[in-house]
Amino acid sequence: MQVCLHHHMGTGIQTTAEIDKFMSLVDERVFLLFDTGHAWYSEGGEAPMLAILKKYLPRINHVHLKDVRPPVIDRCAATACRSSTA
């Protein structure tokens, strides 16, 4: 069994800096579940999301593909629902 971290909005590990810190502290046999929607949302766009992907590609063992919809993000930002519906 392989262990992997699922970075997620509204948790202790959601940003690039938090992912970097976690991955630097754990054994190299711990992998990353790369979540496109949460990475895009936490970092604000495609380029930073892809930077996470490129940096950790050898340690990614699962991918969640999500379609991020800017109107939903805008609505969530206005109503503080960032972690529940984005």
Automatic annotation (TrEMBL):
Residues 2-72 form the Xylose isomerase-like TIM barrel domain. Signal peptide: none annotated. It comes from the Bacteria. This is Xylose isomerase-like TIM barrel domain-containing protein. It comes from Klebsiella pneumoniae.
